Amino acid sequence: MHETGVVLTDIRKSFGSLEVIHGIDLRIAEGSFVVFVGPSGCGKSTLLRMIAGLEEVTDGEIEIKGRNVTDLDPSDRGIAMVFQSYALYPHMSVRENLAFGLKMARTETAEIEARVKAASAILKIDHLLDRRPGQLSGGQRQRVAIGRAIVRKPDVFLFDEPLSNLDAELRVSMRIEIARLHRELGNTMIYVTHDQTEAMTLADKIVVLRDGRIEQAGTPREVYENPANIFVAGFIGSPR
Ligand code: ADP
Ligand code: MG
Fold it and tell me: Which of 113, 134, 143, 214 could form a disulfide with 123 if both were Cys (CB 3.0 to 4.6 A apart)?
C-alpha cells in the first residue's frame, strides 16, 4: 500500500496560446474521496481528463500510487472514468456493456463473468443484465456506467459530474449510493461537480478551483468554517 494515491506536481494546461490550468500542486491520500468543485469553466474537467490521460499535460507531472504516469496511455494508468453522459452502447445488453472493456483487454471469460456478477450485485443491477440501455431509467443507466468502471478494478475512480443529468430526487439517492460504494470498495475517488451540496456531503477533502487555480483545499468543515477568501466563502456558503 502506498500512502499517496495521486500526486499532481505543477500541472499546467494550455489550449493554443491560452493557459487554462496554472500550476496545480495536490497530494491525494490513497483511499480518500476528493471533490474538485468550482464554477463552470474553472478547469475541473480539464484537470480530471489530464489525470485520466485523455488530455495531455502541457507541463507538470502526475503520479498514481507512486508511479509516474504522465506519459502513459489512459488504459495503463490504473484509472476508470465515469462521465456525465452515460455513453453506453445502445445495441448491447447491460451484461455486454459491462463486459466490453474487459473483452477488449482480453480478460478470461470466467474472470469477466465473475467481475460482472460482483459489480452488478454491488450496484443492484443484477436483474437488469439482459436489458438494453434504452429499456433503463436514467438512474439505472448511470449505475451501469459506474459498473463499467468497477469491473476494471481501477486504483482510482474519476467521476466528471456523473449525476448532473439526473433529476433532483435521483441525484440525492445516487449520491448516497456513491458514498456507499466508496466505503465498500475503499478506492481513491476523484469527483468533479459544480454542486456545493454534493461536494460537502461526499468529500473527505474538497478542492475549490477558480480560473485554473486552487483557491483552497481542505476538509468540508475546514473549507466551510474557515474559508480562505471571499470567493470560497461565497461559493461554498451560498445556497444553490
Ligand atoms: P469545467 O469543467 O470546470 O467547467 P473545463 O475544464 O471544461 O471547465 O474548461 C476550462 C477552460 O478550458 C475553459 O475556459 C474552457 O473553455 C477551456 N477549454 C476546455 N477544453 C478546451 C478545448 N478542447 N479547447 C479549447 N479550450 C478548452
Ligand atoms: Mg466540466
Answer: 143
**The ligand 1 atom nearest the CA atom of 48:** 6
- Tell me the residue type at 42: C
- The stretches in the chain having pLDDT less than 50 are 1-2, 240
Residue nearest to atom 19 of ligand 1 (CA): 46
Helix pair 94-104, 138-150: axis angle to 10 deg: 20
Regarding the beta carbon of 45 and ligand 1, being less than 6 Å apart is answered: yes
Distance CA 215, CA 69 (A): 26
Contact 228 CB / ligand 1 (< 6 Å): no
Res 233: pLDDT: 93
For the Cβ of 46 lying below 6 angstroms from any atom of ligand 1, the answer is yes
The predicted pLDDT at position 155 comes to 94
Burial letters for 112-124: b for 16+ Cβ neighbours within 10 Å, e otherwise?
A: beebbeebbebbe
Residue 203, C-alpha cell as written in the block:
468529500
DSSP sequence for 63-89: EETTEE-TTS-GGGTTEEEE-SS----
Cα dihedral 72, 150, 182, 85 in deg (nearest 10) = 80
DSSP 137: -
- 9 Cα distance to chain centroid: 19
Q: How far is CA 135 from CA 29, 90, 162, 164, 220, in A?
A: 39, 10, 20, 20, 38
Q: Say if residues 8 and 26 touch (Cβ distance below 8 Å).
A: yes
Q: Judge if ipTM > 0.85.
A: yes
